[in-house]
Amino acid sequence: MGCLIVGVLNVTPDSFSDGGRFGSVEAAIEAGVAMAREGADWIDVGGESTRPGAVPVAEDDERARVVPVIAGLKARLPTGVRISIDTYKAGTARAALGAGATVVNDISGGLLEPGILGAAAEADAAVVLGHLRGAPATMMEGISFSDVVVEVGDELAARVAAARAAGCREVWADPGIGFGKRLEHNLALLRALPALAGRVGAPLMVGVSRKAFIGHLTGKPPGERQFGTAAAVTAAILGGAAAVRVHDVGPARDVRAVADPLVHD
Question: Which distant-in-sequence residues (6+ apart) come within 8 Å of 107 by Cβ?
């Protein structure tokens, strides 16, 4: 099986790229259904922005944003399209899994709320463990790596081990491109994806869509980073990413159609 496409569905007022885009639950559901129609293999629903400096959202507010959307998607998505909840809060994860999500995508890899790993295991849900040092609000402060590939790989491997010890059977890892990393760190991780996957011992989901490092390289604002994103997604697929997380599913599908045959017979 080739690289999966994960569509980003942010139901937040302040995400860096598409905050406030969906004014109602129904609009968000329609957007998720459209992503599936365009070729998304799963939809990642988030109710809290985790951009640098983002203000944390109360768990009750986060649940109120995501649960109706997930329930609506569960009823309308084609069979086989997965739904993940993008959260680091155990309570939100439980509510989302009860509404129909089958994957927990935690940018902190279970470090911010360790109970989230147990919540995923109890529901027999898959987990995506992101690499993050600290919290989103402060992650861009005091960044320091001696060898970013080795350190991210070893820290993610420890989170993978923790998830498996908690009873999680399907475990993915995300190198956290843009999360507490400078341009040179992001590029080094993208270059080293095959080695990183081997070090982590889990399939990699890579999120590069519209991120700041693309803006640094192209000089474009988030809404104009489609071509830069396509180049980064191509690099991720050629590097062996098992999934790519994107805002623009249709272009990513075309990128995959060309890049996948170069790495998968």
Answer: 50, 86, 88, 130, 132, 136, 174, 176, 179
Assess whether 21 carries a catalytic annotation: no
Q: State if pTM tops 0.85.
A: yes
pLDDT number for residue 23: 67
Q: Which DSSP helix (H) or strand (E) runs through 130?
A: strand 126-130
Angstrom distance (rounded) from CA 181 to CA 162: 23
227 near 201, Cβ under 8 Å? no
Q: How far is C-alpha 17 from the geometric centre of its chain's CA atoms?
A: 14
CATH no. for 8-206 = 3.20.20.20
CA distance 101 to 83: 5
Is residue 195 pLDDT above 50, yes or no?
A: yes
> Domain boundaries in the chain?
8-206
Instruction: Point out the catalytic residue in the list 65, 211, 225, 256.
Output: 211
Give yes or no for residue 142 having a pLDDT over 90: no
pLDDT digits 0-9 by tens, 77-89: 999 999 999 999 9
Is-catalytic flag, 82? no
Q: How far apart (Å, rounded) are the C-alpha atoms in residues 37 and 160?
A: 32
Contact assessment for residue 62 and residue 93, using Cβ atoms and an 8 Å cutoff: no
Please, where are the H alpha helices in the chain?
Answer: 25-38, 59-76, 90-99, 115-122, 148-165, 183-191, 193-200, 212-218, 226-238, 249-263
The predicted model gives 19-42 an average pLDDT of 87
